[in-house]
Amino acid sequence: MKFTDDKQVIDYLYSLPHFHKKSDLSYIKRVLHQLGDPQDQVKTIHVTGTNGKGSTSYYLSNLLMKAGQKTGLFVSPYIREFNERIQINNKNIPNQDLTALANEVLGAITTLQRQEPDFNLVTFEFEVALAFLYFAEQNCDYAVIEVGIGAKHDKTNVITPEVSIITTIGLDHEQIIGPTIQDIAREKSGIIKANRPVVVGTIPDEVREIIKNAAQAKNAPLLKLNRDFKVESDKKISYEFENKKLIFKSRPLVESYDIVIAVTAFYQLNLALDDQAVEEAINATQIPGRYQTISNQPAIILDGAHNIQAMTNLLQVVHAKARKQNGQVYALITMMKDKDLDQVFSLFDKDDQVLLTTLNYPRVAKKNDFPLDVQKRYNYEEDYRRGFTKLKKKLKINDILLVTGSFYLVSAVLNWKGDRDAS
């Protein structure tokens, strides 16, 4: 078998299983070794966290580029096209490179199958192999690597990064890396490597010792938000670390945490970049699908918040904005049916106008997957485009339309409407 175009590659990736019978790193390690261990040929920064890891990765990538470094970026999910998952210097991997690299990975798998006929990779492992191979072959100086889920058992955890990052710890993917928040913290602490600094953001009190002990056991310097570096967010974002004081443009509070985590991690690399350039790099960063505004007056905001922690943070910002301008909040939402739906929907105010919708994906909730009281409280529109149009027609100039609950929904609306909603 040989791939001839990117569509064949993507179709093949989605035909692969999602999990192995055993959750270890042996499969990905064997393929990478067969490919010459490309993951060891580029300096890396490894990023995990329940929320904020994607945003932090984008901020860090921009800082590295500003410092003149050829920078790889591996993130998920994608918003516009699959190629977003693997970038160099903010440019998506070209289709021809994706196809050529997929054939290289497939060749390595075929070689291993001669000794072990049942050997294969799951979807995410194949994607990880593509990324490391691309970054090595393109001679990147650094690559920012966002985990898929967790850290210790995540298929990206085959590197010794220059810096590790844990943005937040909260409840999500409990059935895979839980069920308790302590289990999740232990899993995420697997990103910590011997003698390499780890930068930590918002961590609940009940799991701080787990992270602290993991860092001490690895002799890894631990830099904590609100202890080693500080942030204040009002009209602008103020950042303090050691002798540095920087000011960034205002963003939602949780984004300010992601910014200062990224900047603190960047400073661990000892790359030359003056304060003004750091501020410019951060202020210029645009993150797809995270508090992305496609219209003002009335505001239309798209955000892929899909768990309790992320939705709490998002709705605090949106409700504060609505109160300030005396506007009504409308929300178009769907979620994966395995999420904590009851708790997420309890976060909406009673005056919020919420419309449930769905998408043509197996995991996405359909009408009967929503809790009964949610079904009674809110209307349901199967076609998200019709739902979006219905809500948009109701908007007055100070109102807010929020599209949220899933990056899949954000992706669908952006691919339909574009970055600026002109219609």
Automatic annotation (TrEMBL):
One MF annotation (Gene Ontology) recorded for this entry: ATP binding
Domain Mur ligase C-terminal: 289-407
Family from the record: Belongs to the folylpolyglutamate synthase family.
Keywords: ATP-binding, Ligase, Magnesium, Metal-binding, Nucleotide-binding
GO CC terms of this entry: cytoplasm
Enzyme class: ligase
Ranges for domain Mur ligase central: 47-246
Catalytic activity: (6S)-5,6,7,8-tetrahydrofolyl-(gamma-L-Glu)(n) + L-glutamate + ATP = (6S)-5,6,7,8-tetrahydrofolyl-(gamma-L-Glu)(n+1) + ADP + phosphate + H(+)
Name this polypeptide is given: tetrahydrofolate synthase
InterPro entries: Folylpolyglutamate_synth, Folylpolyglutamate_synth_CS, Mur-like_cat_sf, Mur_ligase_C, Mur_ligase_C_dom_sf, Mur_ligase_cen
EC number: 6.3.2.17
